[in-house]
What we know:
By secondary structure, this protein is mainly alpha-helical. The chain is built from 8 helices and no strands. The longest helix is centred in the N-terminal third of the chain and has 36 residues, at 14-49. The radius of gyration is 22 Å and the shape is globular.
Amino acid sequence: KLMSDTGKWEGLPEESKTQKLNQLKQDERQCKSYLTLANETVQMFHYLTQSIQGPFLRAALIDRVAAMLNYNLQQLCGPKCADLKVQDPQKYGFQPKELVQQITDIYINLDSPVFLNAVAGDERSYKPDLFTLAITRLTNAAIKSSYEIAAFSEFADKVKEKWEEKQAMDLDFEDAPDEFRDPLMSTMMREPVLLPSGVIM
């Protein structure tokens, strides 16, 4: 932004200009590196989940996978997605349409009762409106075919149903004693464990 303001830029001392240009080059290299890694990771994830679902649905991974997908979809399609404007996206390898296409495919690839629960249970990023916004983006930007959008809409409806069930359950247990709640998350513990210290987790 500073460089686009010719008056302010020309008013800077030469030493300051040099420092800012060097910092810009360093930031550009770092940005390209991160985006390259992100693109390759999502591409590999997309490729693997087309034929292999089991490892990603294991208890040790499933919540992390769901949270990662929800968070990235929120960044790309959520209310603040306009903040991701890039002046020259090709220069940095920023491909938002491809990322949205692949991420929504991954949801469908992993579609199963246990995965629906994990997606709906992500309290940080998931809200039913998120998938509605994603469907609107898929449609308006012609990222997917009408058949593919219908499949994702069906998945979104199933997740919303799980989310509504969870909301109703949380309401039922709203007055539950503190010893039944996770001390860190303040959520109901499904399988509480008594630690040697006497703390229940």
